């Protein structure tokens, strides 16, 4: 696959910063308040790598979950949404793994100083799933004690929990492992299946394929019951729930839909608008 530089100004800036994110621990923490407000564990940064400062912008806004799309190219895991945007400097290590490791070392074992909850790193595989996952697994093994680990039937919490999404072929090699540093992002079809939360801790799906309501007018009662039933079923099995493709244009419709998701006790709100979701959650005093 030919590598090209990113064409958009925003991501060009991100590429320029790629060489600066793998910094010594003190610099990786630049701008973080020693005793800042609590993390927003329900906030999920969709397409995080398209922000001017991948990872760091989401952490500055106190997000509890973020998403990186990866491609396997010549043994390297490159971060981009589309193949034409691939650049050799934008690796998963430089944008995410190295700065996270530095931050956790500086914070004595946690991403957010004084808060022990794990940050969720959702890794969306864009190339063939099995081979890409096996290479990702080799990368994750280089970061001892950073990731939540499944080993011989038990889950050992870490500062970061990696969840694998994207190409479904990743599932087969993951299921075959007795020790792994990542977990699988299920779909609604996995809800109530034999797959345990120790393998599928997250159920994600497309909102528009399951609901008609987009925040305008009243939420249909049948759809509200369906949403709450999904969340209850997942929570009863120790799983969390996220929907993508929810409205993300600032305004009353988005706020109404986010409010219904919170009322249903959804675990993650999906957005590209970091400041908008931060303000929404802060106004409601919820994490």
From TrEMBL:
<dbReference type="InterPro" id="IPR039559">
    <property type="entry name" value="AIM6_PI-PLC-like_dom"/>
</dbReference>
<dbReference type="InterPro" id="IPR051236">
    <property type="entry name" value="HAT_RTT109-like"/>
</dbReference>
<keyword id="KW-0732">Signal</keyword>
<dbReference type="InterPro" id="IPR006311">
    <property type="entry name" value="TAT_signal"/>
</dbReference>
<dbReference type="GO" id="GO:0008081">
    <property type="term" value="F:phosphoric diester hydrolase activity"/>
</dbReference>
<feature type="signal peptide">
    <location>
        <begin position="1"/>
        <end position="30"/>
    </location>
</feature>
<dbReference type="GO" id="GO:0006629">
    <property type="term" value="P:lipid metabolic process"/>
</dbReference>
<dbReference type="InterPro" id="IPR017946">
    <property type="entry name" value="PLC-like_Pdiesterase_TIM-brl"/>
</dbReference>
<protein>
    <recommendedName>
        <fullName>Altered inheritance of mitochondria protein 6</fullName>
    </recommendedName>
</protein>
């Amino acid at each position: 696959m030919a590598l090209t530089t990113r064409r958009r100004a925003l991501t060009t800036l991100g590429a320029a910063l790629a060489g600066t994110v793998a910094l010594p621990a003190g610099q990786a923490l630049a701008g973080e308040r020693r005793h800042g407000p609590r993390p927003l564990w329900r906030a999920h940064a969709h397409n995080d790598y398209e922000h001017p400062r991948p990872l760091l912008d989401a952490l500055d806004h106190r997000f509890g979950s973020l998403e990186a799309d990866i491609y396997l190219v010549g043994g390297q895991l490159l971060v981009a949404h589309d193949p034409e945007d691939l650049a050799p400097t934008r690796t998963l290590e430089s944008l995410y793994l190295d700065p996270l490791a530095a931050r956790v070392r500086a914070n004595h074992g946690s991403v957010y100083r004084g808060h022990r909850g794990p940050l969720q790193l959702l890794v969306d595989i864009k190339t063939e799933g099995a081979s890409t996952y096996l290479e990702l697994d080799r990368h994750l093994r280089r970061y001892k004690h950073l990731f939540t680990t499944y080993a011989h039937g038990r889950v050992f919490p870490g500062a970061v929990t990696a969840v694998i999404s994207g190409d479904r072929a990743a599932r087969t090699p993951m299921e075959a492992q007795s020790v792994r540093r990542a977990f699988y992002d299920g779909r609604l079809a996995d809800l109530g299946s034999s797959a345990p939360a120790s393998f599928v801790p997250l159920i994600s799906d497309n909102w528009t394929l399951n609901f008609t309501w987009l925040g305008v007018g009243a939420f249909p009662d049948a759809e509200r019951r369906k949403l709450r039933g999904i969340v209850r079923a997942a929570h009863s099995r120790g799983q969390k729930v996220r929907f993508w493709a929810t409205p993300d244009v600032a305004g009353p419709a988005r706020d109404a839909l986010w409010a219904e998701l919170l009322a249903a006790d959804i675990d993650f709100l999906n957005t590209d608008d970091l400041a908008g979701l931060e303000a929404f959650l802060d106004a409601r005093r919820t994490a």
